[in-house]
Amino acid sequence: MPVEFDEFDIEGPVLFVPNRHRDKRGVFAETFRYDDFREVVGDVDLVQENQSISTPINTIRGLHFQRSPYAQGKLIRVTQGAILDVAVDIRPRSATFGQHIKIELSADNWYQLWIPEGFAHGFKTLRPDTHVMHKASNYCSPEHDHGIAWDDPELNIDWQLYGQQAVVSDKDRNHPRLADLDCELLGGRVLSHLPASSRKSRVILDHHHAAIQ
After folding, report:
1. What are 16's strand-pairing partners?
2. Residue range 160-200, pLDDT digits in tens
3. What is the pTM of this model?
4. Residue 26, number of CB atoms within 10 A of its CB
5. Which end of the chain has a smaller Cβ tally under 10 Å, C or N?
6. What is the C-alpha separation between 65 and 69, in angstroms, rounded?
7. For 175, which DSSP code?
8. C-beta separation of 182 from 90 below 8 A
């Protein structure tokens, strides 16, 4: 397999790390193989690719998801710059409902993060002029598009702003908190809602370093 992969404490997301081959000309890697991808994540088709360019540092996009039948899984990568990528578990029957993972993706580390259906996704740019691409398992559908407040206090996400101002769109600024969403948007009744103090995040800054819980 031309990529290595890691899983997280929260079931579903997968981190892919391509094996890079260097010589005097530069670097080559197979960044995506459909057969290897499906071997790891299961029977998933990727049908659309999107790209964003965020000019200012501390741009936050998210937290976004699409409801069924247009729910999306996303394979995220950064081709220029760097982001702090965040995925929040919004599967109503999940034992980790409301918990999140976060990880640094950059043009330097070549990491790719798979976020399956049932997660809300967002990111913060760590460098100016950051380019983010993602492949999606379903088509964009504006009428099925929803979001959660990026600064929902119950999600307890540390966006690492360090007192600086986030750059957020009007649309993202007006998303509701997770607790205020209609359960039908999430696919059913929430069985349990863990208090913020029990939620975990996982940050991987380097593939060869231990994760910070």
Report:
1. 5, 112
2. 999 999 999 999 999 999 999 877 778 766 655 544 433 44
3. 0.86
4. 8
5. C
6. 12
7. P
8. no
